[in-house]
Amino acid sequence: MTAHAPQSVRSNWLLADIGGTHARFAYAAADVATPKPIATYEVARFSSFDTVLAQLLIDWREGAQPDTRITKVCLAVAANPDHKEISFTNNPWRFTQAEVAAQTGCSDIQIVNDFAAVARSLPAITASDLEQIGGGVSQLGQPMVTIGPGTGCGVGTLVFDNAGKAMVLPAEGGHVDFAPTTDVEMKVLSRLKAEFGRVSIERILSGPGIMNLYRALGEIHQLPIANVSSEAVGDAARTGDRLAMETMSTFCSILGSVAGDLALTIGARGGVFIAGGIAPHYLDLLHQSDFRARFLAKGRFTAFNQEIATFIVKHPHPGLLGAALLCSI
User: Fold this and answer.
1) In this structure, are 106 and 176 located in the same domain?
2) Which pairs count as long-range contacts for 96-99, CB under 8 Å and 24+ apart, including other chains?
3) Which of 44, 123, 199, 211 gives 20 to 30 Å between its CA and that of 150?
4) Spatial distance between the Cα atoms of 309 and 136, rounded to a whole number of angstroms
């Protein structure tokens, strides 16, 4: 019997995109920054980050990568990445860089905001994973901005230096003030202000935000609240339910207005990209809505925004793609 030579240990990067609802993991070879998915876990099924990371390492090594040495870790998190302890905005997990190093055996750990990772992915996303809404063009080498309604609402910006090198500007744009522009939206603001005090755009442009909007509009029109989840509201809108239709229409309009504000603020001639878990599921409603009209409704600067393209990101894992690209720096 001929003895087989032992398989060489492979060096890989461990990548993660962790939001309020799902934790997505992938790996990439150090010389090929293309992420290969490992697993996606529901946050609610794990009591802590260390338990999901332990499960991930078991699943990974029992699967296709039994002989792997982790040489770099990049975690894209829906949280402020600069704190010593990472504390998520919309899920109960907490962890430190030292704890991740101890579990993975890797000391080279990079922690970034999840929408910094999404922003970094934008130049690498192909046309087949984008759906344009309205006119405008994406100008090469110009600032690009992404906003993503999901469990929360992330915002990230990508700019380029004179040599064309991409640089991410992470921020917390999902927590700026909601600015109503119609009489009904002002009534919505009044009701949400009574409940929350300050009303950020995340209070509307997110899954929980759809429910906030649905309940507020139900109160305004004195209509019964029949649906108990944002998914149910979206489904009901497609079947002609009046309150659900107005909720989703208003959601899309406000998203267009906020996207237009970001385009003006950033000068996003490279395009505005709608990512996150919600928009790709409602492409039909977005196309039927006033999204693009509200994007353009900027008074004396309508012509400025008219030149800027708006896209829905259909790529399944832009955060993991961006984390791989950030790892390669």
Assistant:
1) no
2) 99/49, 99/50
3) 123
4) 4
Residues 63, 189 within the same domain: no
Specify if 3 maps to a domain. no
Count up the domains in the chain and report the number.
Answer: 2
Report the relative pairing of strands 271-274 and 310-313 from DSSP bridges: parallel
Cβ atoms of 320 and 26 within 8 Å: the answer is yes
Long-range CB contacts for residues 300-304, cutoff 8 Å, separation at least 24: 301/264, 304/263, 304/264
Report the CATH number at residue 43: 3.30.420.40
Cα–Cα distance for residue pair 29/118, rounded to 1 Å: 20
Interatomic CA distance for residues 243 and 224, integer angstroms:
9
State the average pLDDT over residues 196-216.
98
Residue 142 Cα distances to 114, 160, 325, angstroms: 21, 7, 19
pLDDT, tens only, 112-169:
999 999 999 999 999 999 999 999 999 999 999 999 999 999 999 999 999 999 999 9
- φ/ψ region of 105 (left if φ > 0, alpha if ψ in -120 to 50, else beta) reads left
Write out the residue range of the structural domain in which residue 231 sits: 122-313
Beta strands (DSSP E) in 30-81 are 32-42, 68-77
Dihedral in degrees, nearest 10, Cα atoms 55, 61, 63, 69: 130
Give 9's pLDDT tier (boundaries 50, 70, 90): low
Residue 1 has a pLDDT of 37
Give me the CATH number covering residue 155: 3.40.367.20
Give which of 132, 133, 137, 131 is closest to 307, Cα–Cα.
137
Report the distance separating Cα 250 and Cα 258, nearest Å. Answer: 12
Are 201 and 188 spatial neighbours (Cβ–Cβ below 8 Å)? no
